[in-house]
Design brief:
Layout (H helix, E strand, L loop, with lengths): L4 E4 L5 H10 L3 E6 L9 H10 L5 E6 L4 H10 L4 E4 L5 H4 L6 E7 L5 H7 L5 E6 L25 E3 L8 H8 L3 E4 L4 E3 L2 E2 L1 H13 L1
Parallel strand pairs: 1-2, 1-8, 2-3, 3-4, 4-5, 5-6, 6-7, 7-8
Antiparallel strand pairs: 9-10
Helix pairs in contact: 1-2, 1-7
Protein name: N-(5'-phosphoribosyl)anthranilate isomerase
InterPro entries: Aldolase_TIM, PRAI_dom, RibuloseP-bd_barrel, TrpF_fam
EC number: 5.3.1.24
Length: about 210
């Protein structure tokens, strides 16, 4: 089985970014959505990115942000990847000087394969839990059996993952990567270094 990559999302502090990197995370996620308790300012993001060691990717998470505003952020932040986590259409996601992934919130009855195919320009698709009115970060898992095999894009599995369940999730879904936020926190926006290490150990053991 190939190595499963891991992103620690919702990073708000330099020390948490460094803890994620030290534990072996492949990427960290920075949330640019004002309604999120994990939202960061440009200044916070700049400090976090500047502190990271080489080979740790930085992902910016956006929820229906106007194009001009997002382009302005990219002028001052050296993000590696864009994560669109709202109701963005395929056309909304292209045209930026960065690759992107599209988050899709999963609920019973969804034709996940058809939804994934809509985003042909995506580097990958993130599958998260559907909760009405909340674009992400719910801390709730969805039914992993809903994920079809052999989807047309690399899959990043998110939604309610913890050190205690991520190994089973990987075994069932066989994703390219996993994404965790609340499952490794002491409180919203504040990570727990011990939980991050435990999560990464479980990912490696899967």
């Amino acid at each position: 089985m190939s190595v499963v990559r891991c992103k620690i999302c919702g990073i708000t502090r330099v020390e948490d970014a460094l803890a994620a990197a030290a534990a072996g995370a492949d990427a960290i996620g920075l949330v640019f959505y004002a309604k999120s308790p994990r939202a960061v300012s440009v200044r916070q993001a700049q400090a976090i990115i500047a502190a990271l060691p080489p080979f740790v990717s930085t992902v910016g998470l956006f929820v229906d942000m106007p194009r001009r505003e997002l382009e302005g952020l990219l002028d001052v932040l050296p993000l590696d990847l864009l994560q669109f986590h709202g109701d963005e259409s395929p056309a909304d996601c292209v045209g930026y000087p960065r690759p992107y992934i599209k988050a899709l919130r999963v609920r019973p009855g969804d034709d996940i394969a058809a939804r994934v195919k809509l985003y042909g320009g995506a580097a990958g698709v993130l599958l998260d839990t559907y909760v009405s009115g909340i674009p992400g970060g719910t801390g709730e898992a969805f039914d992993w059996s809903l994920v079809p095999a052999d989807l047309s894009k690399p899959i990043i599995l998110a939604g309610g993952l913890t050190p205690g369940n991520v190994q089973a999730a990987i075994g069932q879904v066989r994703p390219f990567a996993v994404d965790v936020s609340g499952g490794v926190e002491a409180s919203k926006g504040i990570k727990d270094a011990d939980k991050i290490r435990a999560f990464m150990q479980a990912v490696r053991a899967a």
